[in-house]
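The freezer alarm interrupted the setup, so I double-checked each line after restarting. Inputs confirmed:
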Amino acid sequence: MVEGAPQVLIALEQGLGAVVRQSVWAYPTANIAHVVGLAVLAGAVAVMDARLLGLGGATPWPSVVRPTQRVAAVALAVMLATGFALFAAEASHLAQNPVFLVKMGLLAAALANAGVAAWLLRGLAPDAAVPPALRASAGLSLALWLAIAAAGRTIAYV
Amino acid sequence: MLDRRLVLIACLAALAPSAVLGHHGWGSYDAAKTVTVEGPIEVSQFENPHALIKVTAQGKTWSIVLAPTSRMIARGAPAAFIAVGKTVTAVGYASTAAPGEMRAERITVEGKTVEMR
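Predicted 3D structure, all chains:
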């Protein structure tokens, strides 16, 4: 518990956080699921972004992007749920961790970028070439998610 | 062109951290100097990601970081092993980042030594 932390963080740390910390299996289970969720999410995102960047151009983009979008959405849901549990366990400390704050900023950027990409894809014909804006978004997506992964692991070392 | 893209993607993927459990870095502890702290346990938190006890020795109160609870239990050190009031001898390394914090390599309670690593 960090002295003088916002009340909402203290409440979270003393409520759900205490449950997560005091259970023998909750924290490691959330930790493992978070890492496995990352593997699935990053894999799906990499396949999706690679296609939008031009890899496998002979396959119509919806055949690659639509299924991987669904996989990524499920993995993201797992990551958000387990990430919230891990955050709750040490909420007041993590809120002061600079790398955690950077990670949350990168996450917000990645989600906004995914929204932009989804919007750009709406008007794109299945056999159309991927326009430059969408390629840029795909490249940014790859960079952001890998940076989020790196930041996530770095939280424990600062 | 295609090959270059593949190489680029492989390089980016290699930057992603390997999936490891564990919480604190080894680097932020002074592993060159072993610290031994002996005294009664004043605070005992049998919690994840690491159990923690507080012990005062020679006028200095140490926060002693132990192991995840599943490992503690597996090695015969459940919550009762580090109950408040018991005398503990903790051998470990002082944190270079957080003053008064040490990471225990092993603890001894009532003649029984348990490795934390």
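Quick read of the result. The mean pLDDT of chain A is 96.
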